[in-house]
Design goal:
Elements (H helix, E strand, L loop, with lengths): L1 H9 L25 E2 L4 E2 L8 H11 L3 E2 L4 E2 H7 L11 E3 L2 H13 L4 E6 L5 H13 L2 E6 L19 H11 L3 E3 L3 H4 L18 H4 L3 H15 L4 E5 L3 H13 L5 E5 L19 H22 L5 H14 L4 E8 L14 E9 L2 E10 L3
Parallel strand pairs: 5-8, 6-7, 6-9, 7-8, 9-10
Antiparallel strand pairs: 1-2, 3-4, 11-12, 12-13
Helix pairs in contact: 2-3, 9-10, 11-12
Bound molecules: pantoate (PAF).
Length: 373
């Protein structure tokens, strides 16, 4: 306990308001089967089993650890918490892969049409529009929330990726989602897990170069989710354009019986594509980030006025990013919308794609320059 207090002190733990959340708050939740009640410390922590913000991350790393007093695993304690969406009785929360699979198969047998919305949580309007899209084409909508470790590189933001479970559940409930599956990493990748999807060729350029292994992780989790929640349709946003092409190709190549629905990117009123990572941006970075959508809009306008030379368009897009102070450009590319092969002349449908870092935040965006006629 002394060590925890020392760390708190070192990090200058303080609360903005008396009784409000502190900047850092360290507690010992469990220590094997120890039960300690002293003036300095109580173990197990007396309120840990009432708090979703404690149990949800604890379940990610130690779902099967047993609370020595309550004789329940962390997972069971989490399941027993009243749903934050309890006033929305239509949202059913599933933590177990076998339960969700059995439920979806049952819904199939009863003639329901099921729409799936896979997410990593930290939901925003873009995700909610996926739920609305699914709702238009299916009578049952199932979402998943899982921050998939295998799609993050060793130096990427897996640990700090925003986790906002309570708000996510409320948003899903009010968007009309019926079921949500929230597995732990151990449920998806149990000990001995060793089968991965080799992603298609379209995964190789662009993100494939900047984020080696990313699409192997994406393809593997998406296929596994399709197995656990065998839906009729699955909705994905066009903001992650290359991901969408990878998933479409995988589904076609492996004859997965699901229809992939591509949903338009949702933008802030000033044009910034919505992303869970936008919340990392400081106010000045948020301004800089607008250069991505601006560069894409300018490219589209150039093409509309007759420019066909891809190199000229790419140079102008890079200049727009530089003018905004964005120096870490990972790629600016014009490519074939289906294969993502580079395109030198914009005389047929072409997708323009950008990946750049604004501060330390990696952002991507894209725009179709010439639509098929
Ligand atoms: O786009 C995402 O949020 C993720 O890549 C996905 C498709 C949910 C897989 O983890």
């Amino acid at each position: 306990m002394q060590t925890l207090l020392a760390i708190e002190k070192n990090w200058d733990a303080c609360a903005a308001n008396a009784g409000g959340p502190r900047t850092i708050d360290l507690d010992l939740l469990l220590y094997d089967d120890a039960m300690i009640e002293s003036p300095e410390i109580i173990v197990p922590h007396p309120r840990m089993h009432e708090r979703r913000f404690v149990l949800a991350p604890a379940a990610e790393i130690a779902a099967n650890v047993v609370h020595p007093k309550l004789r329940r695993t962390i997972r069971e304690l989490l399941t027993q918490l009243p749903s934050p969406a309890a006033d929305e009785p239509n949202l059913r929360i599933f933590l177990s892969p076998t339960d969700i699979q059995a439920t979806i198969l049952d819904l199939h047998r009863n003639g329901h049409r099921i729409g799936l919305v896979p997410t990593m949580g930290a939901l925003h309007e873009g995700h909610i529009s996926l739920v609305h899209n699914a709702r238009e084409q299916a009578d049952i909508v199932a979402a998943t929330i899982f921050v998939n470790p295998t799609q993050f590189g060793p130096h990427e933001d897996f640990r700090k990726y925003p986790r906002t479970l309570d708000a996510d559940l409320r948003a899903l409930a009010s968007a009309g989602c019926n079921l949500v599956f929230i597995p732990t990493a151990n449920d998806i990748y149990p000990p001995g897990f060793s089968t991965y999807v080799e992603p298609p060729v379209v995964s190789q350029p662009l993100e494939g170069i900047c984020r080696p292994g990313h699409f192997r992780g994406v393809a593997t989790i998406v296929l596994k989710l399709f197995q656990l929640l065998p839906a009729h349709i699955a909705c994905f946003g066009q903001k992650d354009y290359q991901q969408l092409q990878v998933i479409k190709r995988m589904v076609a190549d492996l004859a997965v019986p699901i229809e992939i629905i591509a949903c338009p990117t949702v933008r802030e009123p000033d044009g910034l594509a919505m992303s869970s990572r936008n919340r990392y941006l400081s106010p000045s970075e948020r301004q800089q980030a607008l250069a991505l959508s601006r560069a894409l809009a300018q490219a589209e306008q150039r093409v509309r006025f007759g420019e066909q030379n891809a190199a000229t368009i790419v140079t102008a897009m890079q200049a727009t990013l530089h003018e905004a102070g964005i120096t870490q450009i990972e790629y600016v590319a014009l490519a074939d919308p289906e294969t993502l092969a580079p395109q030198t002349t914009v005389d047929r449908p072409t997708i323009a794609l950008i990946a750049a870092r604004v501060g330390t935040t990696r952002l991507i965006d894209n725009r179709l320059l010439l639509k098929a006629t």
